[in-house]
Design the sequence.
């Protein structure tokens, strides 16, 4: 249920252009790490990219249009892995996909 709440909170914050706090390190016992869905993570990646670079520049780096990016950012559509890779590159970051057990 916590993952559902996290996804809803982040998606709502993105849709309403509210500030998104960065994750913080938690300490102590009984700490369970959860992650948002890939769709929400993609929207967050583009959101943070657009806070550092003009939206047109991010779109150009992704070889897409800013209109396409606007659909991804509020998590209205699923981006391709290629688009995510290009967005990460535009930020000077590396896209990492892994399975965790």
Sequence:
């Amino acid at each position: 249920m916590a993952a559902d709440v996290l996804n809803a909170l982040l998606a709502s914050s993105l849709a309403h252009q509210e500030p998104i706090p960065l994750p913080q390190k938690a300490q102590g016992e009984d700490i369970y790490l959860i992650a948002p869905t890939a769709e929400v993570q993609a929207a967050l990646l583009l959101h943070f990219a657009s806070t550092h670079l003009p939206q047109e520049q991010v779109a150009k780096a992704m070889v897409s249009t800013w209109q396409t990016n606007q659909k991804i950012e509020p998590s209205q559509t699923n981006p391709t892995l290629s688009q995510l890779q290009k967005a990460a590159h535009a930020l000077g970051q590396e896209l990492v996909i892994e399975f965790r057990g």
User: Anything to note?
Assistant: The chain has one domain: 2-18+37-90. The helical segments are 2-15, 38-52, 55-61, 66-72, 81-90. Residues 88 and 94 are 6 Å apart (CA to CA). The chain has a mean pLDDT of 75.
